[in-house]
Design goal:
- This protein is an alpha+beta fold and 157 residues long.
- Helix 2 runs antiparallel to helix 3.
């Protein structure tokens, strides 16, 4: 179970939600994900995102998989995973950050989200607290992360 932030390249004339509905309508949840086929521009976006995150945030470990390009942060305040598919992407954080650890990790998540938006043109949205990542409040996201993490610790262990 992870806290997820979604990114999408909003189609001209559509809202974020309409674009997501359009993408979901054409997908089969039981099918294997489509093989990654990035354009040159998308590969360049990935390179800019990875380079800037490495310079501004710190070391990351990156991998290329058949279905996505991925990086994970290394070290404190915790592991944050970013998966890039070209016209969509997402950030995942495990629900294990409580109290004072939650703001640290969510500040990191929102810094990465803003870099992704600036370097790719993708639009990020945090559906956990229903706010855009560009203008959203990381403290609000941290409260949600901490609350769910606390609940999970007490009810799922």
């Amino acid at each position: 179970m992870t806290y997820d932030i979604t990114f999408v390249r909003v189609r001209q004339g559509l809202t974020l939600h309409e674009t997501l509905d359009h993408l979901r309508a054409g997908s089969d949840p039981d099918a294997d994900p489509p093989e990654l086929r990035l354009t040159g521009a998308q590969r360049a976006e990935w390179g800019r995102i990875l380079g800037r995150v490495s310079r501004e945030i710190g070391s990351v470990e990156s991998e290329e998989y058949p279905y996505s390009l991925t990086f994970e942060t290394v070290g404190p305040p915790g592991r944050v995973q970013f998966d890039y598919y070209g016209d969509t992407a997402n950030i995942e954080v495990a629900y294990r950050h409580l109290g004072p650890a939650a703001p640290d990790v969510m500040n990191l998540v929102y810094r990465i989200a803003r870099i992704v938006e600036e370097e790719s043109g993708l639009t990020g949205h945090d559906f956990e607290v229903d706010q855009p990542t560009r203008t959203g409040d990381p403290a609000r996201a941290a409260a949600r992360l901490s609350g769910v993490s606390d609940w999970a610790r007490h009810h799922l262990s």
